[in-house]
Amino acid sequence: MTASTIKLATSAEDHHIARMAAVALGLTVLENAIPTPLPGVKPGLANIVTLIVLARYGWRAAAWVSLLRVVAGSLLFGNFLAPGFFLSLSGAVCSLAVLALSMHLPQRFFGAVTHSILAAFAHIAGQMAVVYLWLIPHSGIAYLIPIFATAALVFGTVNGLIAARFMDNGDKPEPEPQP
Amino acid sequence: MLALRHIKPGDYLTLLSGISFTVWISFTVWSGGIADTALIRSGGKVFKEVPLSRDQQIEVPGPLGSSIITIEKRKARISSDPSPRQYCVRQGWIQQAGEIAICLPNEVSVELTGGAKKYDSLNY
Q1: What's the CATH class of domain A12-167?
Q2: B4: DSSP letter
Q3: Distance between CA atoms of A113 and A60, rounded to whole angstroms?
Q4: How far is B91 from chain A (nearest CA, A)?
Q5: pLDDT tens digit string along A39-83?
Q6: What is the complex's ipTM, to 2 decimals?
Q7: Residue B118 lies in a domain
Q8: Minimum distance, in Å, between the CA of residue A58 and any CA atom of chain B
Q9: For residue A147, what is the enclosing H or E element?
């Protein structure tokens, strides 16, 4: 028997991305255990990882982590190519597009909280677009927009604060306990 | 508060715009048009169309008996109905265009209309 191994040439950056995507995936699994009042209202804890990767390794790495998390997460939950997957995907793509723009804001004044809030709003905008154009083409879903917008505001702020806290551990060595 | 140290000045700006956007969109989406007419149906057919400007009580016959619809201060409600579960009575006052109270077994409904109707029909 000859053991056949496939060896891929990987760089240190690939390892970073894989590690971060794994953490994001863990958070996704964790938050799926939290019951939600309305489908679609989720804390989006995995986005904390995306924000940190964006600040430390740039947009390309953040996009990798975010999209890997969406695809691998859908494989874990068994909804790959199901409607839920496309909702996650459209949300992630819109968030990344907005983050690509917002990361050029002056860093002296705008931090992770800004990026997080903007990305959260982009996330629901992308999801609502898919819901309206594909799943429920009825103007009645507009009634849900304020609920999703409030959730985006609250969770965007909280995630941004957590991300900022993690990145700002110079004077505080111990990391914040997981929410 | 410890968490406040991590907020940069521009973040407050984003937070404030986010809050105002959310409040604005809530008001835009959730405040239906001003209602000016109550459309009363019985058995699927329009029984009567009455303006909300005049306070009155209307008795509407249905297969189980008659339902009483009250119009008061530009609001409408079904104040009495022979249906067993009383859902439409418990729904209370309706006042925005597009709102509707339906008594199913008695086949009586009140729909408020006015201004531009938001949709042609709703299916369940």
Answers
A1: mainly alpha
A2: G
A3: 20
A4: 19
A5: 778 899 999 999 999 999 999 999 999 999 999 999 999 999 999
A6: 0.82
A7: no
A8: 20
A9: helix A145-167
- Domain membership of residue B124 (yes or no) is no
B23 and B83 co-located in one domain: no
Q: B11 is written with which tokens?
A: 């973040």
Q: In Å, what is the CA distance from B72 to each residue of A11, A125, B11, B22, B115?
A: 74, 40, 48, 33, 20
DSSP codes of every residue in B8-73: -HHHHHHHHHHHHHHHHHHHHHH-PPBP-EEEEEETTEEEEEEETTS-EEEEEE-SSSEEEEEEET
Interface of B with A in 22-41 (CB under 8 A): 22, 25-26, 29-30
Distance CA A23, CA A50 (A): 10
**In angstroms, what CA-CA distances link A95 with A4, A27, A91, A100, A129?**
41, 18, 6, 9, 13
Contacts of A165 in chain B (CB under 8 A): 3, 6
